[in-house]
């Protein structure tokens, strides 16, 4: 996704260690050609904001020193990427990470709305089991007959019971090579079998819209890839007059912050969405004008709601535009900027943090919903959210 000088970067999010399509942390993509070499980002709007005294310290890494460490390693016949990884690890930047050219390209493609995988979405179920939550139509998993509700037992012989959903998805996607094989052990109704699937390049289905039997419009957003924000806006515009919106952000690991701001614009008539800082300089994201400010909205969140999804949650909560239901969100609110290294790999280094419109920091804290539900990932949370929405006049 290369851009030329003067192009406006998108903001995005991706946690360390799970790049392979599993989740996304806050980075500035598309600025490698200009900002990476100089350490300067294209100019953004600035805004003053109240800072919390308990705000987490701003992590910094000497980007020039990092590039020198990688170059010195290469001069000695060693891996520049490995040297960079060791440098970042020693720096204490907990969200800093180094990716090779192919990994970063795969990430950018995912943000563009495509990925290499088998077409499975997963979730944590009872007793920590990993279940298939959705099977993408026409994907390798669907063609093999896998279904939502099937239990995933192992991937390539590795048991997944102790792994997080992000780690399981990372195993399923592998190195992002289309046509590569992955063996998936599955259980259904007491039967177990192993299915060998061939990974394929698939289009993401990050926004799905359903009309529920009580008239509520359910908008599920699994990631903020390109176009996701506008699809949310379209769904709200197309919703019947008076119908409430249940915005499901559970398990949403982030994506492009610019898309989260567009999604916020579906419910706001302009105004502040978030503030963030880059090397100490404060900036802001604003909603577009013309959003629906009257339709009842409930946002569903859980511990898998991260980064850009937390940014959207914080904006709707702080500005009194939605009731939030579920569990405390993940707490990923640091800003990374990518820097190109001499061997073509890319280092993402923390340069600041973002805050909600009320000035609350998210990093390491998360967002506490207005109504906490014990099992935020299950049907009970959705039922509670629909009850709340009905009380707001958004359901039959």
Spell out the key features of this protein.
Pdz3 Domain; 27% strand; 2-enoyl-CoA Hydratase, Chain A, domain 1; 6-stranded antiparallel β-sheet; 396 residues; globular; 6-stranded mixed β-sheet; disordered N terminus
Question: Distance between the terminal alpha carbons, to the nearest Å?
Answer: 45 Å
Reported for the largest beta sheet, the result is: 6 strands, antiparallel
Shape summary: globular
How much β-strand is present in the residues? 25-35%
CATH class of the largest domain: Alpha Beta
Using only C-alpha atoms, the radius of gyration works out to: 21 Å
Please, what is the average pLDDT? 82
CATH topology of the largest domain: 2-enoyl-CoA Hydratase, Chain A, domain 1
Named CATH architecture of the largest domain: Alpha-Beta Complex
CATH superfamily of the largest domain: 2-enoyl-CoA Hydratase, Chain A, domain 1
Structural class label: alpha+beta
| Whole-number tally of structural domains | 3
User: Which percent bin holds the helix content?
Assistant: 10-25%
What secondary-structure arrangement, pairings included, does this model have?
Layout: E1 10-12, E2 27-29, H1 35-38, H2 63-75, H3 80-91, E3 97-99, H4 101-111, E4 114-117, E5 120-124, E6 130-135, H5 140-143, E7 151-155, E8 158-159, H6 165-173, E9 181-188, E10 191-198, E11 200-203, E12 207-211, E13 217-221, H7 228-238, E14 245-248, H8 257-264, E15 272-278, E16 281-286, E17 297-301, H9 308-318, E18 323-326, E19 334-340, E20 346-355, E21 371-372, H10 379-391
Parallel strand pairs: 13-14, 14-17, 17-18, 18-21
Antiparallel strand pairs: 1-2, 3-20, 4-11, 5-6, 6-7, 7-8, 7-9, 9-10, 12-13, 15-16, 15-20, 19-20
Helix pairs in contact: 2-3, 7-8, 8-9
């Amino acid at each position: 996704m290369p851009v030329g000088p003067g192009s406006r970067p998108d903001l995005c999010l991706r946690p360390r260690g799970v790049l392979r399509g599993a989740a996304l942390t806050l980075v500035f993509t598309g600025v490698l050609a200009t900002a990476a070499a100089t350490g300067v980002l294209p100019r953004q709007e600035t805004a003053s904001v109240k800072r919390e005294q308990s705000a987490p310290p701003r992590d910094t890494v000497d980007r020039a020193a990092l590039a020198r460490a990688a170059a010195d390693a290469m001069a000695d016949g060693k891996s520049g990427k490995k040297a960079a990884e060791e440098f970042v690890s020693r720096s204490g930047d907990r969200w800093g990470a180094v990716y090779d050219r192919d990994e970063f390209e795969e990430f950018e493609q995912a943000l563009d709305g495509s990925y290499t995988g088998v077409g499975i979405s997963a979730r944590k179920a009872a007793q920590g089991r990993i279940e298939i939550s959705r099977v993408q139509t026409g994907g390798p998993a669907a063609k093999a007959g896998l279904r939502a509700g099937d239990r995933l037992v192992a991937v390539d012989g590795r048991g997944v019971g102790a792994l997080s959903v992000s780690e399981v998805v990372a195993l399923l996607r592998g190195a992002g090579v289309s046509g590569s094989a992955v063996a998936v052990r599955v259980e259904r109704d007491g039967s177990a079998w192993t299915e060998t699937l061939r990974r394929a390049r698939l289009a993401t289905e990050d926004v799905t819209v359903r009309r529920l039997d009580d008239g509520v419009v359910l908008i599920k957003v699994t990631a903020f890839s390109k176009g996701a924000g506008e699809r949310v806006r379209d769904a709200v515009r197309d919703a019947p007059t008076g119908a409430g919106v249940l915005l499901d952000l559970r398990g949403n690991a982030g994506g492009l912050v610019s898309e989260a701001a567009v999604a916020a614009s579906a419910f706001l008539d302009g105004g502040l969405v978030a503030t963030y800082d880059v090397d100490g300089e404060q900036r802001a994201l604003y909603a577009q004008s013309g959003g629906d400010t009257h339709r009842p909205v409930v946002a569903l969140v859980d511990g898998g709601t991260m980064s850009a999804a937390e940014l959207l949650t914080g904006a709707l909560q702080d500005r009194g535009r939605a009731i939030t239901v579920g569990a405390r969100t993940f707490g990923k609110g640091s800003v990374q900027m990518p820097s190109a290294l001499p061997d073509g790999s890319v280092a993402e280094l923390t340069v600041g943090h973002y805050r909600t419109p009320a000035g609350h920091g998210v990093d390491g804290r998360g967002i506490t919903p207005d109504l906490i539900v014990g099992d935020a990932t299950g049907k009970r949370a959705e039922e509670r959210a629909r009850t709340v929405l009905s009380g707001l006049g958004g359901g039959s």
